[in-house]
Design goal:
48% helix; 8 helices; mainly alpha
């Protein structure tokens, strides 16, 4: 991402934009709570040095400072055994109320932890649940109505500001099909 000019500040702005989109457009009811899931599966100790560690630390801090009452739980899933050591370094930087909301679970424990807060029908198949939007891999991330709505919102905002965003025809057709309720 650095090669494309995307750094920690851009990632954090994106994170805030997605969070605000959820609150303003998808779930404007102030009583709603978020379930944040950070999947650290496949992440090595070296990956969490520098920028990756900084992003994780700052994003958890951002949640705790700006959305403390909107956060139900912050799950760090598929965590390798060494992740507990990393949490010990991050934990003092996070307020106590948010610390209590953080759950760190191994790959083996991920599905059961998700099921504590989410119905199995709403857990993506990639995590052992039953949620799927059409065929393919990672459908909840790319084909869910919420993700498609976010992409459409970003495209509309970019268009208003005359910012061109490259989207291939296949992706656009898939997104439109999902918005219309047809599997694309």
């Amino acid at each position: 991402m650095k090669v494309a000019g995307c750094g920690i500040e851009e990632l954090l702005r994106h994170y805030v934009m997605v969070t605000e989109f959820c609150w303003v457009k998808l779930y404007p009811d102030e009583t709603k709570k978020t379930i944040t899931v950070f999947d650290v599966g496949g992440v090595g100790i070296r990956d969490l040095a520098g920028d990756a560690f900084d992003f994780l630390r700052r994003s958890i801090h951002l949640i705790s400072e700006h959305y403390p009452e909107r956060s139900l739980v912050i799950m760090i899933v598929n965590a390798p055994s060494w992740f507990a050591v990393l949490w010990k370094m991050i934990r003092p930087m996070v307020n106590e109320r948010t610390q209590k909301k953080v759950k760190i679970v191994s790959k083996k424990e991920t599905l059961e932890c998700l099921k504590e807060f989410i119905e199995e029908a709403d857990i993506p198949i990639e995590y052992g649940g039953k949620l799927r939007f059409g065929e393919g891999k990672d459908t909840a991330r790319f084909k869910s109505p919420q993700e498609v709505a976010l992409r459409e919102h970003v495209l509309a905002v970019n268009k208003r500001h005359r910012v061109e965003m490259v989207v291939d025809a296949k992706t656009k057709a898939r997104d439109l099909a999902v918005l219309r309720g047809v599997d694309g």
